[in-house]
Amino acid sequence: xxxxxxxxxxxxxxxxxxxxLSACATLMPVQEGQKLIGQSQAEVQAMFGPPSDVFRLRDxxxxxxxxxxxxxxxxxxxxxxxxxxxxxxxxxxSTPELYKAQINIWTRQDVLEHFGMTREPIQYYxxxxxxxWSYRFRHEDVWPSLFHFYFDDAGVLRRTQITPDPLxxxxxxxxRW
Length: 177
Fold this sequence. Notes:
Beta-lactamase Inhibitory Protein, Chain:B, domain 1; alpha+beta
């Protein structure tokens, strides 16, 4: 009977170990992803699962996006060299990454390859003649916000805007003074 207990305890320890490893990848994805730098695409996929978006970039490298949108505030980018080895892993929806967008230079394709496809509904404002893509993020890693990319009819990025995320705004209808 003690060998049955020992076997069950061993299986329990293995299951808990696997659970803890997956929790690390969920709770600290950037740190866990950076530990995989130099590893193959298969090893990255084994840790994080299939990506939301996959892009072949102009320089022969590729980028996988792991998006937590539309309700999450993160999208993680896994960059691979031409041999399929991980070279970088980071949160693409951080303030410094979002500020890399170049007005009047970037196109929809550049935004798509850098941040992944928006999971928010795409808006079109006919008077402005602008299509707007929006992404949830934490401005300066603190404030729940939306980052908006405005494209003209030719698909060129013409402006960006940061607004508070309405999902995190207090509902005034229920406030009692």
